[in-house]
Specification:
With 189 residues, the chain is an alpha+beta fold. It has one domain: Aminopeptidase (3-Layer(aba) Sandwich), CATH 3.40.630. The protein has a seven-stranded mixed beta sheet with strand order 1-2-3-4-5-7-6, sandwiched between helices. The protein is globular. The chain starts with 6 loop residues before the first strand and ends in an 8-residue tail after the last strand. Helix content is 29%, strand content 31%. The chain is built from four helices and seven strands; from the N terminus they run E-H-H-E-E-E-H-E-H-E-E. Bound molecules: coenzyme A (COA). The site of coenzyme A has 23 residues, from strand 4, helix 3 and helix 4.
Length: 189
């Protein structure tokens, strides 16, 4: 499968199939120790509530994108989510010009095909269109893949908290903070 078969879609309504597929996708990643801000896999109700909040916030305050790929066999191809990501504008009044890219995830079996980069670029473009000035992101310090991806799209590190992330009693990881200043990157790269 090539990237031409993948479509990036902005979610503007929350359907049961997407909720179920994204709950399964995220759950599988978390059980494989992916660091995407959930200690345990979210329930489908948690996923539904998250997506509902993001969609209800409206395009100026949040953007949730889904990458879809045909998974159907013979006949009508079925386009299911194989990745998703979202940003949300900061709630605090003094931080309202900015947004935080809270999550980006691609199903392991679709990883390495450029889908994460496609999602990220579309999320950045949407933040720019929404008038966001700075787009922040944070991730676990051992996430070399994510770090490589964000730096290659222009994000720069502005801080790091050593041993801040504690996924269990034994392990500690740095928390890395990066930002993309959209005023300095007026158009997509
Ligand atoms: C990080 C993630 C979103 C990347 O998505 P992806 O579709 O696999 O990434 P892409 O195929 O678009 O590749 C983007 C770049 O990241 C690099 N990359 C991706 N995963 C990597 C890994 N595990 N190690 C090193 N580099 C990696 C690729 O080499 C590529 O760089 P290149 O174009 O210079 O070769 C995906 O691996 C994922 O969902 N991981 C688990 C969840 C997570 O960690 N999310 C980010 C934290 S917020």
């Amino acid at each position: 499968m090539t990237n031409s078969a993948v479509t990036i879609e902005r979610l503007d309504r929350v359907g049961t199939r997407d909720v179920d597929a994204l709950t399964a996708l995220v759950g599988t990643l978390i059980r494989a120790d992916a660091a995407i801000g959930w200690a345990d896999p979210p329930t489908r109700e948690e996923m539904r509530d998250l997506l509902t909040d993001l969609v209800a916030a409206g395009p100026s305050d949040a953007c949730v994108l889904v990458a879809r790929a045909p998974i159907g066999g013979a006949g009508e191809p079925d386009c299911n989510p194989v990745g998703f990501g979202y940003w949300r504008r900061y709630a605090r009044t003094t931080l309202r010009p900015h947004a935080d890219l809270e999550r980006l995830a691609v199903a392991a079996e679709f990883s390495g095909r450029g889908i994460g980069r496609m999602l990220l670029r579309h999320l950045i473009d949407a933040a720019r269109v929404a008038g966001c000035e700075q787009l922040t992101i944070d991730f676990r310090g051992d996430n070399a893949g994510a770090e490589h991806l964000y730096v290659s799209e222009g994000f720069t590190e502005y801080g790091r908290l050593p041993d801040f992330v504690a996924p269990d009693a034994e392990r500690r990881f740095d928390k890395v903070f990066q930002v993309l200043d959209l005023r300095e990157h007026p158009r997509g790269r």
